[in-house]
Amino acid sequence: MAVVCIGWLYYNRPLRANQQFLGFSRTLQSTLQPTVRLTLSNYDFYLAGITSDSLYLGNHNRIMHSWQAGLHTLDIASTPIQSARFGFEQLALRVQGNYFYILDGIKPFVRYGWRGQWWAYELMDSVYFLQAAPTSDRGLVMLGMVNSENALGKWQDGMKAPKWHTDLLEKQVDGFFCTYGKLHADGANNRVVYVYTNRNQYLVADTNLVVQYWANTIDTISQAKIKVGRLDSMTTTLASPPMPVNVHSAVDGNLLYVHSNIMAANESRDDFEQHIVIDVYDLDERGTYQYSFYIPKIPMKPFKGFLVKKQRLFALFGDELVGYGL
Which of 120, 203, 206, 311 is most exposed by smallest CB count within 10 Å? Predict the structure, then answer.
């Protein structure tokens, strides 16, 4: 009798907020299966970048090191990053193309160098930012705050300050939480992509932040589901937990991969809860939706993000690094 009651409660559990917006369907292709897997030494690793032959990791506790793993074997090696002495607040390593970057938007500064040499030279030290993405070896696009609201900016070596574009991000509630998102830059294809976290929209621009088009993810959340409050005249905070729409994203060539937090009408609840769902969009076709696929979750291992390169996807679950073929 107890088993029957537990089963009844399980199948009649209330829908979560992200399972109630069912006005769309997905074209589900497959569930990815791991082709390679590596257990890291701790949970402090994060994805730092990917090239045609290697995946790069950083570590929050060994901040001036890079870990390089082969795409097919995940054989991993650590390399120290050399630099003149500097103070820092919150460092992040990024690897793109032939270069690596040490970013700290709080201190603030950006240092950079060549992969293989691993010596970090000063690039910028005067602009506060929330995110920075390289567009070239000495150029960046940035997410920062202007008049207490998020804005996108372009910085190039020789500029004293970025050129901020305060008219690109559309305010719905507070100008910070409602417009926050993930910034991607692809200098090789002259493309910048900004994906809103809390609504179904993303921006595609060139590396000078000239807008090419706006597009929508396939879900129906066009308004950010957030409530904000004020601690004082200068500080805004969330008054209730937000409902993220686009949790993680990655760009590879002409494709945008979005980890969606919204269940579709043609998905089973169990499938949605047991998998990470990735929606794919073609950036060369003005963001046209292509298809979706599942990545199985790993029990008790939080999903920390993913990167894609040429039919290979790598996901980080806690201390588990997993590779898949697309």
Answer: 311
